[in-house]
Amino acid sequence: MHVHFLDAYRPRPSVVHALDPRVKLVLALAFILAVALTPIAAWPAYLLLAALGFSAVLLSELGVGFVLKRSALALPFVLAALPVLVTARGAALWSIALPGWTLVISDAGMQRFLSILLKSWLSVQMAVVLAASTPFPHLLLAMRAIGIPRLIVATFGLMWRYLFVLVDEALRLLRARAARSGDPASAAGRKRAGGSVAWRARVVGGMAGNLLVRSFDRGERIYAAMAARGYDGEVRTFPLPPIPAGQRLILAAGVVLLMLLVGVGYLS
Amino acid sequence: MSQNSVWAVRVERVFFSYGDGQPALDDVSLAIRPGEKVALVGPNGAGKSTLMLHLNGILRPARGAIYIGGVAVEEKTLGRVRAKVGLVFQDPDDQLFSPTVFDDVAFGPIYQGLAEGEVRARVARALADVHMEAYAGRISHHLSVGEKKRIAIATVLAMEPELLVLDEPTAGLDPRARRGLINLLRTLPQTMLIATHDLRMVAELLPRTIVMDRGRIVADRPTAEVLADRGLLEAHGLEL
């Protein structure tokens, strides 16, 4: 059994894909930082940032639909921002009467909520473009280049490598459970298939424990395989090639543009 | 030292236990000449993998001594010994731990302290040896089991070892991938020790067979003799 869905990378012959991963990572982080720094309800600045984001989406040739669908996955997390609707002070827009309590949605609250919604959506969009246009090994190189400690980058690499293996193992366990959760004909109509909720919970708990033990064993075997090839606790890699001059220019231009957009946000 | 250097591998009266009271290796001695191709067979739990992990010092014997190409396996020689012994694990997912095939094959040479140019040359050579030149940029997870096994062999070939130690190289392969792997092993010139249940491969590829059971070596003879000895095969749960 085999999973591919975790792999976010979508190969396309686009200029965004061709960009140096270090340039892409820094620009994407700068974009997200710029979006975060832009003040609440700076609509013109949001519009410009959104235009920039959509340009990246279009240039990446990933397809607007694909990026929108992926970025929609982040929307449930925006629910956490719902309380600002009623906690911010301002002129009342609506009031909701609950028994013994009235919730007042203020205009300031609404502005803040819409800003947070828009900001998180724009940020996630850029992250989707970054992840879908850059193979993960290149992202790891870029993380190393911007000074994330090698040991942490190596840990990300191992996590990414073995997440797939772990999910494959989990799928095999689920399939094995499904194969043995038959519903005997004699029991038809008497009991629901698969047993009680408590019984199911016990099975799932057992599977989680099983996965943990398997992962632990695998960790030991991987360490043995690393040691067999000379690993001594030090993470060693090739030096990175220099970033071409043209890409440096793109990087500088992008960062300056984003700073200007944040400025627009404060002026408007 | 001088008498040990004519042997690719020399294991002298090795004892080892995982600490559960059962001896995993019980007075094991063997010697392999340079260029020899040797099979290590026996039921599960016989101590085959344990013995293999001793050959490059991942496990250390409670008693006894091990020499690889004349070098004693001890704390201060681990680096040298590991460069001499290419150990290929049974599950290629354990062996291929890097993000890409290139990174995995380059891992050993990088840790040998080679310069970048030499590492790249070694990777290219190792991938060519296993006929996987086009796979350098691939991601290990997306390969088939047969492809992973070949890459796993390339990861140790890149270290240019004197001795190849393989754990169940044909396990889990379909007939075509198995055939391809056997043909590949036939072309490799290194001294070889292969733990396996695949006695048909042993008959075809490895002139000498060591039979282990319950931590002991119970036979060490030419493969043809071992395979002809029905009583021996039956006594140790082996089947042709």
**For the residues shown, what is the average pLDDT of chain A?**
86
Low-confidence stretches of chain B: none
Helix content of chain A: 55-70%
Order of helices and strands of chain A: HHHHHHEEHHHHH
**DSSP strand (E) fraction of chain A?**
under 5%
Helical content class of chain B:
25-40%
Distance between the termini of chain B: 39 Å
| Biggest sheet record of chain A | 2 strands, antiparallel
Quantity of strands of chain B, as a count: 10
Please list the strands of the largest sheet of chain A in the order they lie side by side.
1-2
What Rg of chain A is obtained from the alpha carbons, in whole angstroms? 25 Å
Shape of chain A: flat
Number of domains of chain A: 2
- Mean pLDDT level of chain B: 92
Distance between the termini of chain A: 55 Å
Identify the biggest protein-protein contact and residues per side.
Answer: A-B, 29 and 34 residues
Number of helices of chain B: 10
Strand content of chain B: 15-25%
